[in-house]
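General statements about sequence and structure are easier to judge against a single worked case. In the encoding step, the backbone of a single protein was reduced to a row of integers, each denoting a local shape. The record that follows shows the chain in one-letter code together with its fold in token form.
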Amino acid sequence: MKVICDRAALVNAVNIVGGVVTSRTPTPVLRCLKLTAADGMLVLSATDLEMGLRLAVAQVEVEQEGEAAILADKLSQIARACEDPTLTIETDPDSIAAVHIRGAGSHFKVFGYDPSEFPPVRDFEGATVDCEVPAGVLQTLITRTLFAAAVEHSRYAINGVLFERSGKRLRMVATDGRRLAMAKGECKSGEGESTCIIPSKALKLLGKLLDDPDTPVQLSIEENQILMAVGDPGSPGNVAVLSSNLVEGAFPPFEDVVPKEQDKKVSFDAATLSSAVRRAALLTNEESKGVRLSFANDKLTLTSRAPEMGEATVEIDLDDYQGDPLEIGFNPGFIIDALNVVTSRKVIIELKAPNKPGVLRTGNDFTYVIMPVNLQ
């Protein structure tokens, strides 16, 4: 194998595909990226045996087709350290595991592994397309839900994000037991219904591939695996195919968690509310990390108190508060997380009682449920 690569494109591809690689593995070849040069393209592949990614790079000149397996961290370090516009990657004719990387004034001989030892990474060929979603729509759904997913929770099913499709309507839901985020959108094509739970790691990596909002993303959902092709698999351009095992188990009955009869309602400018919550959160700590929100007819007062630190009071004028006065405590970080992912200037908060969950909405496409905290 011998290829001349645009260095910037190579760095970008290695950074993305390297996100699959795990440093702790009893199988050393899994610490590598597999490079396959063929048909005028260079395809980088990685897998941790639960998730796999193939990314095609077109900004290359293939002088000799072939393949190699190079340690991901070393390839990344070398590509980033060199300042040349192009790098030449060539396998050693005398060693199946050695690779030469050359720039204008540098030469590295890197010992990798026999590429035939690298586990297969699935492509999209032969897959049954469940739906096609514009990258911008999918990115929005991921951004508005992934932050609320559990991390290493004992209830394994909530360590991922629920993906539901009914015809062309999409819904994604994530929860960690203390909050729940639900986002809706539409796909370009799709018939019938499909449901699965996608691991958080796979969605984080997919988000890095969705840089062009108009790029088509094709999804194929199987019994225990999902395939996602970013770009047209039939075109010669840069195409990424991400495969992942699905999360096993049943997602909790989240629709029962979303309050239906909130009798207190108020709208906010998202930036104004975010600023107020951030200021009130400055005097909280791990022992006292709640912020008290006191709603009255024309004013919201946010207060916080932390032993040996002090107290904070922040006020916001209310124009359209509906309902009786109410005091309720929330984790300020949970509110800020939601406000960071909304694009609408206006957000609506609905409440019921101090011990009942609150709801933050933007239109019909984003619903966020947050459990209150006890401030006693």
Summary: The mean pLDDT is 93. Helices lie at 7-17, 72-81, 135-143, 200-209, 270-280, 332-341. The chain has three domains: 2-117, 131-255, 258-370.
